[in-house]
Amino acid sequence: MYISGMPMRATLFGDLATNEGSILEAEIKYRPVIGLSYFKISIYQGDTSISLQIISLLCINPKIELASELREWFHLEEAAKAKGSPSTLFKNAKEIHISDIMHTSQNSIQPQYCTFKVKITTILNRLEPWFYACKGCDKKVDKDVCKECLNDKYRGIIDDPVPRYLVKILVENGTDNARVTLFDAAETLIGCKAEKFITKKKEKNNQSPYF
Protein backbone atom coordinates (compact mmCIF):
# COMPACT_ATOMS: atom_id res chain seq x y z
CA MET A 1 0.00 0.00 0.00
CA TYR A 2 1.30 3.45 -0.92
CA ILE A 3 0.74 6.78 0.92
CA SER A 4 -2.30 7.40 -1.27
CA GLY A 5 -3.91 4.45 0.53
CA MET A 6 -4.31 2.49 -2.69
CA PRO A 7 -3.45 -1.21 -2.24
CA MET A 8 -1.44 -2.98 -4.96
CA ARG A 9 -0.70 -6.66 -5.50
CA ALA A 10 2.87 -7.65 -6.40
CA THR A 11 3.83 -11.03 -7.84
CA LEU A 12 7.39 -12.36 -7.58
CA PHE A 13 8.88 -14.94 -9.94
CA GLY A 14 12.04 -17.04 -10.09
CA ASP A 15 14.96 -16.12 -7.83
CA LEU A 16 13.12 -13.07 -6.50
CA ALA A 17 10.34 -15.32 -5.23
CA THR A 18 12.84 -17.75 -3.70
CA ASN A 19 15.30 -15.31 -2.16
CA GLU A 20 13.65 -11.94 -1.52
CA GLY A 21 10.28 -13.66 -1.19
CA SER A 22 11.45 -15.77 1.74
CA ILE A 23 12.89 -12.66 3.44
CA LEU A 24 9.59 -10.84 3.01
CA GLU A 25 7.71 -13.78 4.51
CA ALA A 26 9.91 -13.59 7.60
CA GLU A 27 9.66 -9.77 7.82
CA ILE A 28 6.01 -9.32 6.90
CA LYS A 29 4.87 -8.88 10.50
CA TYR A 30 7.20 -5.87 10.77
CA ARG A 31 5.56 -4.21 7.75
CA PRO A 32 8.69 -3.78 5.60
CA VAL A 33 9.02 -1.08 2.95
CA ILE A 34 10.04 -2.36 -0.49
CA GLY A 35 11.56 -0.51 -3.42
CA LEU A 36 10.92 -1.82 -6.95
CA SER A 37 12.35 -1.00 -10.37
CA TYR A 38 11.92 -2.41 -13.88
CA PHE A 39 8.51 -3.94 -13.22
CA LYS A 40 5.28 -4.26 -15.12
CA ILE A 41 2.03 -2.61 -13.96
CA SER A 42 -1.38 -3.84 -15.04
CA ILE A 43 -4.90 -2.78 -14.14
CA TYR A 44 -7.77 -5.26 -14.31
CA GLN A 45 -11.32 -4.41 -13.21
CA GLY A 46 -10.04 -1.48 -11.19
CA ASP A 47 -7.37 -3.48 -9.30
CA THR A 48 -3.73 -2.52 -9.77
CA SER A 49 -1.11 -5.27 -9.79
CA ILE A 50 2.68 -5.33 -10.18
CA SER A 51 4.54 -8.16 -11.89
CA LEU A 52 8.31 -8.50 -11.49
CA GLN A 53 10.40 -9.78 -14.37
CA ILE A 54 13.91 -11.16 -14.86
CA ILE A 55 15.45 -7.67 -14.97
CA SER A 56 13.41 -6.40 -12.02
CA LEU A 57 15.13 -5.17 -8.88
CA LEU A 58 13.64 -5.41 -5.40
CA CYS A 59 15.12 -3.76 -2.30
CA ILE A 60 13.76 -4.43 1.18
CA ASN A 61 13.74 -1.46 3.58
CA PRO A 62 15.88 0.79 1.34
CA LYS A 63 17.82 3.56 3.09
CA ILE A 64 16.22 6.44 1.19
CA GLU A 65 14.15 9.42 2.30
CA LEU A 66 11.00 8.29 0.51
CA ALA A 67 11.08 4.97 2.38
CA SER A 68 11.42 6.83 5.70
CA GLU A 69 8.46 9.04 4.81
CA LEU A 70 6.38 6.00 3.87
CA ARG A 71 7.26 4.26 7.15
CA GLU A 72 6.40 7.40 9.15
CA TRP A 73 3.07 7.68 7.34
CA PHE A 74 2.28 4.06 8.22
CA HIS A 75 3.14 4.61 11.89
CA LEU A 76 0.84 7.65 11.96
CA GLU A 77 -1.95 5.55 10.49
CA GLU A 78 -1.37 2.81 13.08
CA ALA A 79 -1.31 5.38 15.90
CA ALA A 80 -4.59 6.84 14.68
CA LYS A 81 -6.16 3.38 14.69
CA ALA A 82 -4.87 2.74 18.22
CA LYS A 83 -6.44 5.96 19.50
CA GLY A 84 -9.66 5.20 17.68
CA SER A 85 -9.96 5.33 13.93
CA PRO A 86 -12.64 7.42 12.21
CA SER A 87 -14.48 4.20 11.38
CA THR A 88 -15.00 3.53 15.11
CA LEU A 89 -15.12 7.01 16.65
CA PHE A 90 -17.42 8.40 14.01
CA LYS A 91 -19.45 5.29 13.28
CA ASN A 92 -22.55 6.82 14.84
CA ALA A 93 -21.56 10.46 14.39
CA LYS A 94 -24.26 12.83 13.28
CA GLU A 95 -23.64 14.77 10.06
CA ILE A 96 -24.22 18.47 10.57
CA HIS A 97 -23.70 21.77 8.77
CA ILE A 98 -21.51 24.67 9.86
CA SER A 99 -24.64 26.70 10.56
CA ASP A 100 -25.72 24.09 13.13
CA ILE A 101 -22.61 24.93 15.16
CA MET A 102 -22.67 28.68 14.59
CA HIS A 103 -26.32 29.00 15.65
CA THR A 104 -26.06 26.81 18.75
CA SER A 105 -25.97 28.50 22.14
CA GLN A 106 -22.55 28.20 23.79
CA ASN A 107 -24.26 27.24 27.04
CA SER A 108 -25.93 24.21 25.46
CA ILE A 109 -22.95 22.75 23.59
CA GLN A 110 -21.98 19.30 24.86
CA PRO A 111 -18.89 17.30 23.84
CA GLN A 112 -19.82 15.13 20.87
CA TYR A 113 -18.52 13.56 17.68
CA CYS A 114 -19.96 14.94 14.48
CA THR A 115 -18.99 15.31 10.84
CA PHE A 116 -19.38 18.08 8.30
CA LYS A 117 -18.15 18.52 4.73
CA VAL A 118 -16.30 21.73 3.96
CA LYS A 119 -13.54 23.17 1.80
CA ILE A 120 -10.37 24.60 3.35
CA THR A 121 -10.02 28.14 2.01
CA THR A 122 -7.20 29.65 4.08
CA ILE A 123 -4.45 28.55 6.46
CA LEU A 124 -4.23 31.47 8.86
CA ASN A 125 -0.86 30.63 10.45
CA ARG A 126 0.79 28.95 7.45
CA LEU A 127 4.28 30.25 8.26
CA GLU A 128 4.32 28.84 11.80
CA PRO A 129 1.56 26.26 12.39
CA TRP A 130 3.00 24.86 15.61
CA PHE A 131 3.77 25.58 19.26
CA TYR A 132 6.18 24.15 21.81
CA ALA A 133 4.66 22.02 24.55
CA CYS A 134 5.78 20.82 27.96
CA LYS A 135 6.49 17.08 28.03
CA GLY A 136 4.81 16.86 31.43
CA CYS A 137 1.45 18.48 30.73
CA ASP A 138 1.31 19.15 26.95
CA LYS A 139 0.56 22.81 27.64
CA LYS A 140 2.19 25.65 25.72
CA VAL A 141 5.72 26.66 26.68
CA ASP A 142 6.91 30.22 26.10
CA LYS A 143 10.47 29.75 24.86
CA ASP A 144 11.18 33.47 25.33
CA VAL A 145 10.52 33.25 29.06
CA CYS A 146 13.19 30.76 30.12
CA LYS A 147 11.17 27.86 28.62
CA GLU A 148 8.96 27.95 31.69
CA CYS A 149 5.91 25.72 31.64
CA LEU A 150 2.83 27.94 31.86
CA ASN A 151 0.70 25.33 33.60
CA ASP A 152 0.74 25.84 37.38
CA LYS A 153 0.54 22.11 38.07
CA TYR A 154 3.87 21.45 36.30
CA ARG A 155 5.47 24.88 36.72
CA GLY A 156 9.23 24.64 36.34
CA ILE A 157 12.06 24.89 33.87
CA ILE A 158 12.20 22.29 31.09
CA ASP A 159 15.15 21.77 28.80
CA ASP A 160 13.55 20.14 25.79
CA PRO A 161 9.98 21.21 24.88
CA VAL A 162 8.38 19.28 22.05
CA PRO A 163 6.80 20.92 18.97
CA ARG A 164 3.12 20.17 18.35
CA TYR A 165 0.80 21.25 15.60
CA LEU A 166 -1.61 24.13 16.02
CA VAL A 167 -3.03 24.75 12.55
CA LYS A 168 -5.66 27.47 12.23
CA ILE A 169 -7.78 27.21 9.11
CA LEU A 170 -10.86 28.80 7.58
CA VAL A 171 -13.44 26.49 6.01
CA GLU A 172 -16.62 27.05 4.04
CA ASN A 173 -19.45 25.02 2.57
CA GLY A 174 -20.80 27.51 0.04
CA THR A 175 -23.11 29.40 2.37
CA ASP A 176 -21.36 29.51 5.74
CA ASN A 177 -17.77 29.65 6.96
CA ALA A 178 -16.02 28.86 10.22
CA ARG A 179 -12.62 28.93 11.85
CA VAL A 180 -11.20 25.52 12.83
CA THR A 181 -8.13 24.71 14.91
CA LEU A 182 -6.31 21.42 14.36
CA PHE A 183 -3.85 19.99 16.87
CA ASP A 184 -2.29 16.50 16.52
CA ALA A 185 -4.88 15.64 13.86
CA ALA A 186 -2.92 17.89 11.50
CA GLU A 187 -0.31 15.10 11.22
CA THR A 188 -2.73 13.16 9.01
CA LEU A 189 -3.46 16.21 6.87
CA ILE A 190 0.17 17.32 6.45
CA GLY A 191 1.81 13.89 6.39
CA CYS A 192 4.50 14.18 9.05
CA LYS A 193 5.10 15.07 12.67
CA ALA A 194 5.54 18.74 13.67
CA GLU A 195 9.25 18.30 14.41
CA LYS A 196 9.95 17.01 10.90
CA PHE A 197 7.78 19.74 9.38
CA ILE A 198 9.86 22.42 11.13
CA THR A 199 13.18 20.83 10.16
CA LYS A 200 12.23 20.44 6.49
CA LYS A 201 10.81 23.97 6.33
CA LYS A 202 14.07 25.45 7.65
CA GLU A 203 16.30 23.24 5.50
CA LYS A 204 14.50 24.00 2.24
CA ASN A 205 13.52 27.62 2.92
CA ASN A 206 9.78 27.09 2.69
CA GLN A 207 10.19 24.81 -0.37
CA SER A 208 9.47 21.66 1.64
CA PRO A 209 6.68 19.54 0.11
CA TYR A 210 5.04 19.46 3.54
CA PHE A 211 4.96 23.28 3.61
Overall description:
The relative contact order is 0.10. This protein has 211 residues and is an alpha+beta fold. It has helices at 14-27, 65-84, 86-89, 98-102, 186-190, 194-203, and strands spanning 9-11, 34-44, 47-60, 94-95, 114-115, 119-123, 130-133, 141-142, 148-149, 162-165, 167-172, 177-182. It is extended, with a radius of gyration of 22 Å. The protein has six helices and twelve strands.
Number of strands: 12
Q: How much of the polypeptide forms β-strand, as a percent range? A: 25-35%
Share in helix: 25-40%
Mean pLDDT: 77
Uncertain segments are: 144-148
What topology, given as strand order, has the largest sheet?
A: 1-3-2
Structural class: alpha+beta
Distance between the termini: 24 Å
Main sheet summary: 3 strands, mixed
| Large-scale geometry | extended
Specify Rg, calculated over alpha carbons. Answer: 22 Å
Count, helices: 6
Secondary-structure element order, as H and E? EHEEHHEHEEEEEEEEHH
Feature tags:
27% helix; 211 residues; three-stranded mixed beta sheet; 6 helices; alpha+beta
Note the topology.
Blueprint: E1 9-11, H1 14-27, E2 34-44, E3 47-60, H2 65-84, H3 86-89, E4 94-95, H4 98-102, E5 114-115, E6 119-123, E7 130-133, E8 141-142, E9 148-149, E10 162-165, E11 167-172, E12 177-182, H5 186-190, H6 194-203
Parallel strand pairs: 1-3, 4-5
Antiparallel strand pairs: 2-3, 6-11, 7-10, 8-9, 11-12
